[in-house]
């Protein structure tokens, strides 16, 4: 398709004149209905589309090359230059309208490029034969997108965070690259990688450069104090002669240049800015600055390592510990807390140690000012009863998506219609030889739950409180967010690199750490998008994607940014047996088998993280390993809920997942390690089965979804269906003669009704493997391994809280706390005015009482809200304070209140307005002791839960 060659309106006199400024060529994309060439002529000039400047326009088509020739300069002079654009997507932002200036028209339409898609501008005029300045204008739509551009080897990024509003800002909707080298009269622009979202091209402007400094850099730009190597200042000039180099404070530095290039090494004592001046052939002087930052050397342990991670039990095998430090006044080494004598020279040294048991060695540096820093390592003594661990994590599996009953009433299992519908014999097998937890919890969504598993922390503490975007960190609010309330600046980049993930601890202790399947820890441009960086020795198919583009091998597991990587072996045909073998769930299972066998062959204990993409959407692809025909159609679970095709497909995904569990347990037995392999089965969040109730206009859709009945809500929800998960722990093969099973004789066919959480797994596994939580790593989870010993006197703390300061399709801005049988919910949108969500159909949230209170023992479906029951007001006040204090202790982030797009406040939790409640019976109402109603004890306030802490009411 060849379009356009229109050159914008220019007065004839100006077109005939010589160029008064550097030669420019501007190219704009046109796709919009209102954004036309005629509209451009009629619109008022803007800051980019200035009065009297000619613009060339091109109307591209997706997946086709479009070319415009004889491009004109801004002065209206025809050239031989041409522009060819080959986008994969074209769209209009719809922002141009009558009354808006030409800048809006230029930013209205865009062409998207990624991978090999590109823009090629060739046969540039002589003034741009060697270099040109390139400006790229990009604005894709109202969603957040990071857009990378590469132009003849130079790169830059636009962080698009909303539609154009009239102003251009570098890095937000404009990218400027100066002195781009021109090759053969051509520049080529490419965008994001092939698996990422596209980079938008709205307009491009090329400018002929003046003589000047092309580059001036410092390598490195940051040096430590007393550095002996310093930094190298390098430069390249174009059409310039001599150069001078000086510091900002006026000290000259000898510098020479040859063929326009030069370099010099500098060793500043403090942070210094250097100025390079070049005499240009046109008589001007070009200047550029670069700063070398000098960092103060802090006391630090540079190295602390062992030449062995594990030793055989009962041997005289020794390990050598080596260290190197800077600015250490003294050094101390301990083994499981007991000091070991050491000597160091210039902060470095080594010592040989022998360990009769798994030992944590800690090196502590004390600086002259008393500052202490520590590093730890573990040398494992792995005995015959050292267990292997298989964590089997299912994606989006609900509490009732199984034939194993998790609902108990009056101590007896209740087999629900969903239990009858699903077929999970392998889960039944594991439950029969292990322990079933009926009150296990994760987080509302996948990335938070997975991060909690890896860190042992609640989402409020690790701050990955939402699912991480595929390509780059974004706020990730559903449908662009709400007008008066938004999420805080959570850890959008995923798990913090300051965390010490579970697999790293196990790897350091000598375990082979394996992950196969979904990761979803961070966006693709972040370190932890690759699970290998968390400490996994092996990563297969784990990336930034939160769901598979396709479950099918014949589709090569899809394309784009949710393509499942590294499974080329399973790109099969549509033959029945091929489809069974190459379906994603089975392919991942086969890969896990290979990795477990490799560990067993090397006699290495293993931590295997089998993390399925199933049973996440998409639900239109049945698993051929799950029997589709066993799932009926048309049957109603309850009024308005029937079994459609996608639910039958979902049933096969459950079946295929269950087959994977059974296949791995069988294979562990075949390898002879099943009796010392612990299996932990769980889901990453609440269920998301394609079951939906009918609903009326006065009740929002997100409150009436019933995917895991009898629980209310589903994935993401503040109700139990959003966070309660199926969990089973058992040995892959029950064997009373196994030494590790004698230590942990998990009662077979047992049921545990205590509250447990996914963040308990971190300390539990470490304790069972006789390892310790690393020094400095704080965990919220509790060691629940006493349950596996059959210790009936042990009970984990029977309290759990959730925090979701986000807008999601299934939930909005809430925090919850469960203590025993009681659960309290705080709804931020109900408390704060102007945060209405459902005003269109007569349902409003703002102004409702923001608290909800449920007795889960009597009301598991959370249908009877007791928050305003006078008999429960004291309970609500106590639980509200408990929730608030838990969140404060975790340093939680809260929703942000906004007005006209700007933050105006923080949506903190407010205590219930019950002025007469006196929880501790000291004669002073709670809201007098807690005068500001924020639930914490501020200076001058007393504790409403402590009768000994009060101020007489007259004061």
Description:
- With 955 residues, the protein is α+β, with helices and mostly antiparallel strands.
- It is built from 17 helices and 49 strands.
- Helix 5 crosses helix 11 and helix 10 packs parallel to helix 11.
- It is globular and about 90 Å long.
- The termini are far apart.
- The model is unreliable at 1-20, 694-705 and 835-844 (pLDDT under 50).
Features:
955 residues; 6-stranded antiparallel sheet; disordered N terminus
Summarize, please.
The protein has 955 residues and is α+β, with helices and mostly antiparallel strands.
Seen as an oligomer or otherwise, the chain set is single chain
Mean pLDDT: 90
Proportion in β-strands: 25-35%
The strand line-up of the biggest sheet is 37-36-38-31-41-42-34-43
| Secondary-structure content class | alpha+beta
Q: What is the β-strand count?
A: 49
Overall 3D form: globular
What separation lies between the terminal Cα atoms? 83 Å
Give the low-pLDDT segments: 1-20, 694-705, 835-844
Largest sheet: 8 strands, mixed
Question: What is Rg?
Answer: 32 Å
Report helical residue fraction. Answer: 10-25%
Count, helices: 17
Helices and strands in order:
Elements: H1 12-16, E1 24-29, H2 37-42, E2 56-58, E3 66-68, E4 82-86, E5 89-92, H3 102-106, E6 109-113, E7 118-122, E8 131-137, E9 145-151, E10 154-160, E11 174-181, E12 187-190, E13 199-201, E14 203-207, E15 212-219, E16 222-224, E17 231-238, E18 240-247, E19 252-253, E20 261-266, E21 272-280, E22 285-295, E23 300-306, E24 310-311, E25 319-326, E26 330-335, E27 338-340, E28 348-353, E29 359-366, E30 372-381, E31 388-394, E32 408-409, E33 412-413, H4 417-421, H5 425-432, E34 434-441, H6 446-455, H7 459-462, E35 485-486, H8 502-508, E36 512-517, E37 538-540, H9 576-582, H10 584-601, E38 606-611, E39 636-638, E40 641-642, H11 645-671, E41 677-683, E42 724-731, H12 739-743, E43 750-757, H13 761-768, H14 785-788, E44 799-808, E45 811-819, E46 822-827, H15 828-831, E47 851-855, H16 873-889, E48 896-899, E49 902-906, H17 926-929
Parallel strand pairs: 1-2, 16-22, 24-30, 31-38, 31-41, 34-43, 36-37, 36-38
Antiparallel strand pairs: 1-14, 3-4, 4-7, 5-6, 6-13, 7-12, 8-11, 8-14, 9-10, 9-12, 15-17, 17-20, 18-19, 18-21, 21-22, 23-25, 25-28, 26-27, 26-29, 29-30, 32-33, 34-42, 35-48, 39-40, 41-42, 44-45, 45-46, 46-47, 48-49
Helix pairs in contact: 5-11, 10-11
């Amino acid at each position: 398709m060849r379009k356009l060659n229109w050159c914008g309106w220019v007065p004839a006199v100006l077109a005939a004149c010589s160029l008064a400024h550097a030669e420019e060529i501007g190219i704009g994309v046109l796709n919009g209905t209102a954004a036309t060439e005629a509209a451009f002529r009629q619109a008022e000039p803007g800051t980019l589309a200035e009065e009297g400047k000619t613009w060339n326009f091109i109307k591209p088509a997706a997946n086709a090359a479009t070319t415009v020739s004889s491009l004109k300069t801004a002065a209206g002079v025809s050239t031989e230059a041409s522009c060819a654009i080959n986008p994969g997507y074209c769209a209009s932002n719809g922002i141009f309208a009558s009354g808006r200036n030409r800048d809006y028209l230029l930013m209205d339409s865009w062409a998207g490029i990624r991978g090999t898609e590109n823009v090629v501008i060739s046969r540039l005029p002589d003034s741009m034969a060697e270099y040109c300045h390139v400006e790229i204008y990009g604005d894709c739509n109202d969603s957040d997108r990071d857009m990378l551009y590469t132009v003849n080897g130079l790169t830059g990024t636009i962080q698009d965070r909303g539609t154009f509003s009239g102003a251009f800002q570098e890095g937000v909707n404009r990218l400027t690259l100066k002195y781009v080298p021109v090759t053969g009269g051509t520049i080529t622009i490419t965008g994001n990688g092939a698996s990422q979202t596209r980079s938008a091209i709205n307009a491009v402007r090329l400018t002929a450069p003046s003589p000047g400094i092309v580059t001036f850099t410092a390598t490195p730009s940051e040096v430590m104090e007393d550095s002996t190597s310093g930094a190298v200042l390098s430069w390249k000039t174009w059409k310039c002669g001599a150069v001078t180099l000086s510091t900002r404070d006026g000290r000259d530095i000898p510098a020479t240049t040859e063929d326009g290039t030069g370099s010099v090494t500098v060793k500043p004592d403090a942070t210094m800015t250097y100025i390079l001046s070049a005499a240009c052939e046109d008589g001007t002087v070009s200047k550029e600055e670069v700063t070398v930052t000098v960092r103060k050397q802090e006391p630090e342990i540079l190295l602390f390592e062992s030449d062995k991670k594990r030793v055989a039990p009962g041997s005289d095998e020794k390990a050598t510990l080596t260290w190197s430090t800077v600015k250490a006044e003294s050094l101390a080494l301990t083994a499981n807390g007991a000091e070991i004598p050491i000597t160091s020279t210039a902060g470095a040294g080594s010592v040989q140690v022998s360990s009769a048991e798994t030992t944590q060695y800690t090196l502590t540096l004390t600086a002259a000012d008393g500052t202490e820093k520590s590093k730890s390592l573990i040398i494992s003594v792995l005995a015959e009863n050292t267990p292997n661990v298989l964590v089997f994590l299912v994606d989006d599996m609900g509490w009732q998506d199984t034939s194993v009953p998790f609902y108990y009433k009056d101590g007896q299992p209740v087999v629900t219609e969903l239990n009858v519908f699903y077929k999970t014999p392998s889960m039944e097998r594991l439950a029969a030889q292990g322990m079933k937890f009926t009150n296990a919890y994760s987080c509302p969504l996948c990335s938070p739950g997975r991060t909690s598993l890896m860190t042992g922390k609640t989402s409020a503490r690790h701050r990955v409180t939402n699912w991480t975007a595929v390509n780059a960190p974004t706020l990730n609010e559903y449908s662009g967010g709400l007008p008066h309330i938004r999420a805080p600046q959570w850890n959008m980049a995923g798990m913090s690199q300051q965390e010490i993930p579970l697999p790293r601890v196990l790897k350091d202790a000598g375990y082979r750490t394996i992950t196969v399947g979904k990761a979803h820890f961070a966006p693709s441009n972040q370190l932890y998008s690759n699970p290998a960086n968390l400490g996994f020795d092996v990563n297969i198919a784990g990336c930034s994607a939160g769901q598979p583009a396709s479950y099918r091998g014949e589709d090569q597991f899809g394309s784009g940014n949710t393509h499942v990587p590294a499974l080329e072996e399973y790109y099969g045909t549509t033959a029945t047996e091929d489809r069974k073998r190459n379906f994603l769930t089975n392919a991942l299972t086969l890969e896990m088998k290979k990795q477990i066998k490799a560990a067993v062959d090397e006699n290495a204990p293993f931590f295997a993280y089998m993390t399925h993409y199933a049973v996440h959407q998409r639900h239109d692809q049945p698993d051929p390993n799950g029997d589709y025909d066993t799932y009926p159609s048309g049957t109603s679970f309850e009024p308005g809920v029937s079994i459609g095709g996608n639910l039958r497909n979902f049933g096969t995904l459950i079946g295929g997942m269950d087959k994977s569990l059974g296949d791995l347990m069988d294979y562990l037995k075949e390898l002879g390690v099943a009796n010392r392999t612990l299996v932990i089965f769980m889901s990453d969040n609440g269920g998301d089965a394609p079951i939906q109730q009918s609903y009326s206009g006065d009740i929002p859709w997100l409150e009436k979804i019933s995917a895991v009945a009898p629980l209310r809500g589903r994935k993401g929800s503040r109700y139990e269906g959003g966070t309660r998960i199926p969990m089973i722990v058992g040995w892959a093969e029950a064997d009373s003669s196994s030494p590790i099973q004698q230590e942990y004789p998990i009662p077979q066919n047992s049921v545990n009704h205590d509250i447990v959480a996914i963040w308990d797994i971190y300390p539990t596994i470490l304790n069972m493997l006789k390892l310790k939580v690393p020094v400095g790593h704080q965990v919220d989870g509790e060691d629940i391994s006493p349950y596996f010993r059959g210790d009936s006197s042990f009970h984990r703390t029977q309290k759990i809280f959730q925090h979701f300061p986000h807008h999601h399709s299934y939930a909005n801005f809430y925090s919850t706390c469960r203590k025993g049988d009681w659960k309290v919910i705080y709804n931020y949108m109900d408390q704060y005015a102007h945060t209405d969500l459902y005003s269109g159909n007569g349902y409003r949230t703002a102004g409702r009482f923001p608290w909800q209170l449920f007795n889960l023992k009597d009301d598991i479906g959370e249908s009877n809200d007791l928050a305003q029951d006078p008999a429960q007001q004291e309970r609500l006040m106590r639980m509200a304070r408990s929730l608030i204090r838990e969140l404060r202790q975790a340093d939680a982030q809260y929703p942000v209140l906004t007005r006209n797009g700007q933050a105006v406040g923080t949506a903190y939790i407010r205590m219930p307005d019950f002025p007469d409640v006196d929880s501790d019976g000291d004669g002073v109402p709670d809201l007098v002791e807690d005068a500001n109603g924020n639930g914490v004890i501020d200076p001058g306030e007393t504790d409403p839960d402590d009768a000994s802490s009060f101020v007489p009411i007259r004061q």
